[in-house]
Amino acid sequence: MKGAIFTAMLYCMAGAAVLAGLMGLYDYGQWRFNSHAAQMVLSKTAKVPPTVFTNGLYLDVKYVEAAGETYVDKKWISTDMAKRMANGEAILVWYRPANPMVTHFSRDEAEMPWGWLVIGVILFMVAQFARALLKKEASRA
């Protein structure tokens, strides 16, 4: 009975790992095929204080691209980027129109989910082997 519970647990872990990998693969595909490149600049109403004592602050920004502009209210910006934008520098970002608050900067890309998929396949093969051992043991008894 303990072997059957262990085998069932292996199947559940394999399913969870494959599911995590597939969700990551979906997210990677969304970033890869549905994101837009734009220049992030401060909106006209945004003011950067001269001294900031935190790691960042909320600012109103806009993403400027060839197709137009997208305004984002109260986006969390690091202090370094806020100072760069206050000096007139535009920051290259990738964003998804469905959720413009989430961005990747410059050439950052979403992580590839192959690790979870490989772990899930290996766990599935181990579960299959454990199931075969259980069948062999049951046929002997």
How would you portray this structure in words?
This protein has 141 residues and is of the alpha+beta class. The protein has one domain (2-140). It contains three helices and five strands; from the N terminus they run αβββαββα. The chain has a five-stranded antiparallel sheet. Helix 1 (2-34) packs antiparallel against helix 3 (114-140). The model has no long low-confidence stretch (mean pLDDT 86).
Q: Largest sheet, if any?
A: 5 strands, antiparallel
- Strand content is 25-35%
Number of strands: 5
User: Can you tell me the residue ranges where pLDDT is under 50 for at least 5 consecutive residues?
Assistant: none
Instruction: Specify the helix fraction band.
Output: 40-55%
- Tally of individual domains: 1
Gyration radius over CA: 24 Å
In terms of topology, how is this protein built?
Layout: H1 2-34, E1 36-42, E2 56-65, E3 68-78, H2 79-86, E4 91-96, E5 99-105, H3 114-140
Helix pairs in contact: 1-3
